[in-house]
Amino acid sequence: MNKQLKLTAAILILLQGIFIDSALAQGKHGAIAISSDRTTYGLASNRSTRAEAKKEAISKCGAGCEVVITLDNECGAVVKDNYTWYSGRGDTEGEAKERAFKACGKTSCKLVKSVCSK
To answer: Which residues of 30-49 are buried (b: 16+ CB within 10 A; e: fewer)?
Structure first.
């Protein structure tokens, strides 16, 4: 009986992992890209893959851009203080903004953009 219980538990854990991986794979992905000179940005949201989201964010941003944050069924925000940019993510847009401002740590930071992929 003990062996059957352990086997059943192992199968349930395996199935749980499969369902979680499947849910993430079918989730909504997003990305935020910023230019190397810190003057432009590009956003992508609700894309079917992370790669697709990154490609779109870079395309919208332009030449010399790189992805600074990726989103998987969550929200992201970017704030800046002069030429320094900070990002944050969270379950809600408000939480993402709060984390971005906290990363900045200055009262002079301004919200650039926030986006959710859910």
So the answer is: bbbbbbeeeeebbbbbebee
Torsion on CA atoms 83, 84, 90, 93, rounded to nearest 10: -30
β-pair partners for 84: 81
CA distance 22 to 25: 5
Residues contacting residue 101 through CB under 8 Å, at least 6 positions apart: 79, 86, 88, 109, 111
**If we measure between CA atoms, which residue out of 96, 55, 56 comes closest to residue 73?**
96
User: The pTM is what?
Assistant: 0.72
The 10 Å Cβ neighbour count of residue 5 is 9
pLDDT in tens, 60-76: 999 999 999 999 999 99
Rounded mean pLDDT, 88-96: 96
pLDDT for 26: 61
